[in-house]
Amino acid sequence: MLSARKLKTLSSSYQVIIFILLLLFWFVMTLLFIINYQDKFFTLVSRHRDVFLNQNQELLKGKVLKGSFYATQDNMGIVSILFNSHNHIVYDTVRFRIKEKNSKQWYYESDYNTAAFFGLPLYPLGFPKINNSQGKEYYFELESISGTSTNYVSISTRYPQLESKYVFSHESIQEDKQRLTVYTIKKLFNLIQDRNVLFTFFVNLIPLIFYILFIYIDSEIHFYRYIKHSKYKDVFLKLIQRISSGLHEKMNQKRKQIKNKRPLYLYEILLPFLTYMLILWDIFFITKIIGIIVSILSVMSVIVFNTLSISYKITLVIVLVLLAILPFAILFEMEMVAQKLGMWAYIMLALMVIIYFSNVFDKSMNETKTS
Fold first, then answer.
1. Which of 48, 127, 152, 166 supports an S-S bond with 73, CB 3.0-4.6 Å?
2. DSSP codes joined into one string, 295-330
3. Is the N-terminal amide bond of 160 cis, ω within 30° of 0?
4. How far apart are CA 200 and CA 27, in angstroms?
């Protein structure tokens, strides 16, 4: 029998372990996002607003949008523009050309298929790297080849309308420690100014914040002490006993499944885990809504809820988590992520209603049979 002091020490140890695991989760998930992010470690980004000279920024056939910006670093090799496809795929060709202002010849010119713009927050227009670009003003043009009043792209009014990217080689940065230090500081400032990185940073931090709040509230309210002196002590104890006995029975079942090497155990663990991981992958890493993926994941969710008899209350928790993240997506102007969060919250809510009424129907049928 463990003493009260040992129980308190054991509880504190578990709290520290959970805190460290959640901290590692935040660090690893954020680091993985940054590593896999489109702007690699050896790329610096400058964000620009009000770069276009035209007031009307719709790209119709023969129309040319003009703009200019100042390069903030050397080695400029990419210009990313925030196009607006108006929620559908546009079949047009846009011609992009760029040069140093007042130069007589265009430095680079290329055509791009506008169908590729759909779903991307900023479309990268690459060109041969300009080594001595810092401090110089660059002029560019965008021309539509076949845009019509019902089939055209425009420039989004949201910030940033344009990003200029500067690509550095591994060798040039590591030539001396001072250059590496300066570049690292610049890169950190780049990441801090990036809304996608900040959004991922805060979302991955939510589990840790909730856990810290729970620990704080628990230490202030002293749940166990409150239960002990509450007039509803017997109700609380019966509830805890019921939960613990149910968990104990489930743990025994899992032990038997492992012992008998039944594949059902792996099925019950891996299927929900795979389904929820794929849903998170669809929300945060796929930049457009793809019907076939949504359909497959919806069917997988139905299978998970139906075959594993998951309570509608668990579904409600999932919906609340998605809705809790939604304001952050709106705050950081991540429209596609916000749309997908709302979409999956709606799908889960629909499943919750179906599960609830299914349980009510089954219960009424059983009562009818017994009577």
1. 166
2. HHHHHHHHHHHHHTT--HHHHHHHHHHHHHHHHHHH
3. yes
4. 11
Structure-derived torsion over alpha carbons of residues 49, 185, 200, 76, reported in degrees to the nearest 10: 40
* Cross-strand partners of 52: 67
Condensed to tens digits (0 to 9), the pLDDT of residues 239-256 reads 555 555 555 565 566 556
CATH 2.60.120 for domain 43-175: yes
- Between CA 138 and CA 71 the distance in angstroms is 7
pLDDT higher than threshold 60 for residue 221: no
- Per DSSP, the three-state class of 193 is coil
> pTM of the predicted model, to two decimals?
0.57
Asked whether the beta carbons of 80 and 163 are under 8 A apart, the reply is: yes
| Cα gap 289→294, rounded to integer Å | 8
Is 142:59 a contact under the CB 8 Å cutoff?
yes
Quote the tokens at residue 109.
């010119």
pLDDT at 84 over 50: yes
Residue 172 has pLDDT above 60, yes or no: yes
- In tens, the pLDDT along 312-336 reads 667 777 778 888 887 777 666 677 7
Q: Are 297 and 309 in contact (CB under 8 A)?
A: no
Q: What is the per-residue DSSP string for 100-167?
A: ETT-SS-SEEEEEEGGGGTT-SSEEEEEEEETT-TT-EEEEEEEESS--SSS-EEE-SSSPSEEEEEE
Tokens of 178: 């001072």
By the 10 Å C-beta count (0-12 exposed, 13-18 middle, 19+ buried), 284 is classed as: buried
Spell out the domain ranges in the chain. 18-32+196-370, 43-175
Predicted pLDDT at 202: 80
